Amino acid sequence: MKLIINQFSKFFLTVFLLVSNVIYSQNNYFEEWYSADTDHLPQNSVKSIAPDKYGFIWMTTENGLVRFDGKNFKTFNSSNIYTLSNRFLYLFGSIEKDSLQTFTEYYTNKIIINKRTAKKVKEGYLFNNYENTRFFLNNNIIQKPNFLTSIIKNKNGDYYKIEASKIIYYNKILKRKSEKNISYNSKSDYFLLNDELIILNSNGTYTFYNSLITNKLNIPKNSKFIYNFLTQQYFICSETEIFLLKKATNKLYLSSLHKLSSNRKYDIKCIYYNLLTNKLFIGTNNKGLVVITNNKFTVLTNTKSIDNNYYATFPISPNTLITAKGEIFNTKQLIKDLKLNQTGSQYGIAIDKNKNIWIPDGNKLTRYFKKTNYSTSDFITFDFQVNAIFCDSKNKIWIGFKTNLKRISPIKIIDANSKKINAVPLKNIVEPVNFFAEKSNATILMATSEKIIEYEVYKNKVKKILAGKNDIRSIFICKNDKIWVCTYSNGFSLYENGNFYKMPVDTNLFLASAHGILEDETGHFWISTNKGLIEVSKKSLLAYHKMKTPVYYQHYDAKNGFITNEFNGGCQPSNTKLKNGYFVFPSLNGLVAFHPNKITKITPKNEFYINEVEADNKTIFFNDSVTISRAYQRLKFKIDFPYFGSKDNVCFEAKLLINGNEKWILLNNERSISFTNLPPGKHTLLVRKLNDFSSTYQTKTITICIPFLYYEMLWFKILLATLFSGLLVLGIKLRYNYLKKRNYILEKIIQERTKDLKNTVKRLKNTKSNLRQEIIQQRKLIGTISHDIKSPLKFLSITAKHLHEKSLLSENESIKNNAKIMHESSLQLYTFVENLVDYSKIFLEHNTLDEKDLEEISLIINEKIGFFKNIAEAKGLQLTYSNLSQSTIKLNKKVIGIIIHNLLDNAIKNTFEGYVKVETRIVKNILYLSVEDTGNGISNEIKNYYLNLLKNYETDKLAIQNYGLGLHMVLELLRLLKGDLKIDATENKGTKVTVIIDND
């Protein structure tokens, strides 16, 4: 942000920042101290340290056993676990089995650490020489090691026994597995690394038990050796550096964990290193506990300058960037100062395709030439102060201006390929643009304080969208081309289809002022603010946009390596992404550089626990439910949560279900929730925590039982209800007698009406029975017709056919014609009767219409054409068929056959000479079947009759005696099929009948 101060105060401020930077630049770590002086520890001598199974850190001191969860310290001593002494020695036992143990001075009391708490046990302590020796080696630099006859156990219970001339390896059931002839050396150290025994000599030589190969380490002089046998971590501490001993293929090497620029000012007693959080927990002799976090963020500054307040930067190579002042940095340090813009503003910089650098300064825009290593330049001066510059993919420089005396300049464009600077105004955009961005479709986005402007370059088309409350500072287009805008006071939003979809801010409201966004390879956004850096998953933001799911924000602040939490914005570019993967953000004091993949992300995904409630200063432990006396006025439920990251990343919410419409309450940074005067009953307390970038919740459910007082108990309420009921009984009884009389009268009325209803039902049953008998008779009649008429007709047709075939041998033409007519007439009559029977069956059992099979429509039609072929030839007709699409379709073959038969029969009967043409086509599973003839043509009267009958089919309107049965059968079948019929007819010219059937 811009500093508005006078020159005098600015001088002292920059001097102060420079001094702070020098002090900080000596450190690549962050220290947090906890001691008795800060009321964190009961005593400043931390003697032993180790984690438990759940992630809590345990320490022994001279005044109690301490548990540390990253925020709070809890002390166990004589006041709560009733030990005889508060002077604790070392921790031992098993982390994996949740059975850490310790004891007080002189082994007086043994303490078991289990399920995140400590308690005294009666059993005595079984002395372990190896653990005891290790502890006193860490705490007493004078003592010499003595591991002879020691037993060194691994995590499985197997152990090594150190003897004078050999080392024997036993399994946990005391069976000897192996032994090696290794003579004991009093100057050697014996310890386990990954459950393997290693012998390390004071001169740096070492031997593995399993290989007996001797190698050597280069150990710094005057180093102290500290072994944490619970975690099997071996530390070598020189005066300025702490190393962790690591193993790789039968070789050891030193990994540096912490390095000082000068000698250490405290004595180390015990150490534990957490690999996941990259934190080093060091117990000291008299200064308490120090937690050291190694930084992965680098702050870049110009040590020769008194002003390290940076704004716009731009990549100049895959590994370097340049500031608007002309300073070139790599990811570690300043490598060159071109001194291009010493006194001007730093709010803009652009590099064109020719690698020339463009830097604005007030009304002036200067171009520095790459071909002369930026030693020469040219410039252009405007009437307005330059507000933003941007180089697009076509090597065009876009320039936005500030307002000047209530006047606004149009946007101007410079061709960077031109030797001479020539600014061309874009007259249809006259706005004070402060940021440019380019979409992949040759559209330039421009941000003003009030709107976003979309300009389509090739179409010269402008679209303006009001931004509302979004005072836009920058625009970011992510990998999937979604557009995000950062604002000065309204957080950041997704800009899509002309709308702004505001994203939720973090619980601390740091994101209210968002400067700029960069996206890493994992799809995470990194957002700079006035209160540090925020990391968030793009996937969770898009999920929030669609379903309003929660969003987890990871916060990074000065504890992670910044000199200041205040980053700068309001410039272009507002950040830089180098091709080597590093991100660079400008801040009020230096450039913050880091690689996203190398950042240690300590997310609050660990399990949390609620097993303790403080009731009026009395502690009650419970599992999933707790009963609290009514005598207690205030309840405080404590949350145990091991987390060693930033407190700003922890988001606990809680709600107590009483009425059913409660809302979640944010607990801020508290690890407890309090209630006062809870009402009696059984209540459910829900506490949830946002885990990590998955944006999922971890929820705990606690049942709270508050007992009722006697007058609140159910039995008392029942008694009162019984007494009250007794007062009502008499009145109810009188009312009952009155209603009983009225009911008697009503029952009589109901009986009479019920009798009438029964009679009506009986009549309906008789009617139903009669209808069923009629249907049976009709079916019998159809069967009779089928048997007694169809069979003789079929025989007659066969006989006529036989006579016709015999008549062909006769020379008498009259006999031939009569035989042919007899054969055709009998066959036609038989087919008519067959169609009539099929039609009747379909009409009586219309549910068979739904029985469809995949049929070849061409086969059905050709079969019918074959039947009518001789009749058509006899009448001099040309009978043709054309199929305009595929012929396979799901249909009822019997129904379609009846329809085609009747249409062909009508067409041939009414046509003399000419043609009868059948045509089918199928469109979107709809069958169009048409029969066209050149016959007499249907009159308008008949045509209107059939079309009106199709729309309003009523049996009493049928005129079969006038118009025949054929088309009536077709219409009835179409009505059942929910089909349609079209008739195109001209008298004496012909008729075309089209049947439309939807087969879905």
UniProtKB/TrEMBL annotation:
Domain Histidine kinase: start-end pairs: 784-1000
Keywords from the named record: Coiled coil, Membrane, Phosphoprotein, Transmembrane, Transmembrane helix
EC category name: transferase
Coiled-coil portions: 754-781
Domain of life per record: Bacteria
Enzyme Commission designation: 2.7.13.3
A Pfam family matched in the record: HATPase_c
InterPro entries for the chain: HATPase_C_sf, HATPase_dom, His_kinase_dom, HisK_dim/P_dom, HisK_dim/P_sf, Ig-like_fold, Reg_prop, WD40/YVTN_repeat-like_dom_sf
CDD domains: HATPase, HisKA
Ranges annotated as spanning the membrane: 708-732
Catalytic reaction list: ATP + protein L-histidine = ADP + protein N-phospho-L-histidine
PANTHER family associated with the record: HYBRID SIGNAL TRANSDUCTION HISTIDINE KINASE C, TWO-COMPONENT HISTIDINE KINASE
Protein name as catalogued: histidine kinase
Organism: Flavobacterium difficile
